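Sample intake sheet
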Amino acid sequence: MHAQRPSTREIHAQRPSTREIHAQRPSTRCSSQPATQTRRGVSDVPAFILMFSIIVLATTTVAVAGVNQLTALNDRETINTAERSMEATAATLDKIHQQSDPARSVRLPLGTGSIWLNQTTLSVDSPDISLTGTPFENPIDVNSLEHRFDRNPEPITFAYEAGGAFRSDAGIERYEPAMRCTTGAGGDTVAVVSVVKLTSGDSIDVASGYRDGISIDPTDISSGGAGPDLSRSLQIDAQLLDTDRVVREFSTTGEITVDVAETAYPDQWIRYLRVAAGWDRQGPNSSEFSCEAGRALLRVVTVELSTPGF
């Protein structure tokens, strides 16, 4: 006999419904979500540190570059101010030199430099006329008023010497002296040597060569601040002491010689005499120059420098 088959209704009753199957399966959504968030949080920490480090590095680089640029700008302005001041000093003292003004005052901003009076000489001679008993008999102690800045690789110095202004690292004079070999109104050649001889009172010592501690003390002291320190300055009073002249007429021509070997900056003097003043150099490496002239005007103007209160 055949066993009884379950009816179709009974089979469907035994099968679990789709809802029951989903209810029995464990859910993976809730168990996997916390692990993903943890891994993402861990990976964000190095990225944040890297980004923060880049920001700090960029900010530091910009700040350092800005400070360096500001320092360089301040240094250039200090040097430029000192150069303009020495040129102005030369123009002011030229009023005594050329116009015989009895006295003048100048003011030099110290900045980070030192101002001093350097012992220098300039020699004038002639094989055709006697200079015995004149200021040109021996080398003239013209001396050089100098403003020095210690810089790398070499110091920068601005100098007023014998009527001209010079810069140590420049090839040309900053204010032209009065020494020329030129053609006069009558067509003959004229040799002009007119120099300023600087002396000093008790307030200023003359030093042969620079050394620490010889600078002249400033007359105004600034409280500090950004930018070039223009208020920390030195006032110098200049007074005309004497003027000596030697004028010579030659029957034909005569020779006047100038030697600048013992000046503060011979290279600048050599270029001035050779290029701008019309003198003839005695040799390719010589510091001596000559002028063949029909007339000669030689003059020394002695000016005393002092600081107020002395």
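Comment: The chain has one domain: 66-306. The CA atoms of residues 199 and 304 lie 5 Å apart.
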